[in-house]
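Following up on my earlier thread - several people asked me to post the actual chain instead of describing it. Fair enough. Here it is, all 204 residues.
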Amino acid sequence: MHFQRQKLMAVTEYLAPRPAIPPRCVVPRREKAEEDNGYARLLRRQVEEVFRNNRMIAVCQYNSMPGEDVVLMRHYLRKHNIEVKFVLNEIVRPVLSQSKYKNLLPLFVARNILLVSPETKVKEMLRVLKGVPQVNLLGACIDNAILSRQGVENFAKLPSLEATQGQTVGALALLPSQTSSLLQRGSAHLTALLDQHIRQLQAG
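Reply from S.P.:
Thanks for posting it. Predicted structure:
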């Protein structure tokens, strides 16, 4: 083909109009399923152990704070056997969604930390958090009961288990003693009357 003809054919070649919307914006992209790696499984297993081995798990919103303040907070909490756990939402949420703690899921929407303890040290935890405004209590799971922030504060006002047990034992011991005194009152009164009658007869 002559060179001039080749140029003419190239200039007059039909070009389809470009679509107004790029095809990549119309066809949804298929997200590749991320393969589950061993590190994520390890973190999920640690979260499961935290919820299984502790009686108190408090969920708090964590705002950035100086490292020295974090160390001090952890120190004061550790004095009361309370540990601080920094967790990722993408690790915690799958664990909670398949457990009995799924009602805690709405709390994990921002950067969170967990305050965990094998004992219910609620008063001590609230006392420490009162001096740390960057950490806000959202809710807690105490003895398998899910509580709001107000519920945690109300729980802290309850007397200790030992004091409650002492009051219960005292109340239970009071009833038999009162019953025993009521049963003995009649015989004691009769004995006193007979003694007085004998003395009167001897005096007469």
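Residues 161-203 form the longest helix (43 residues). That should answer part of your original question.
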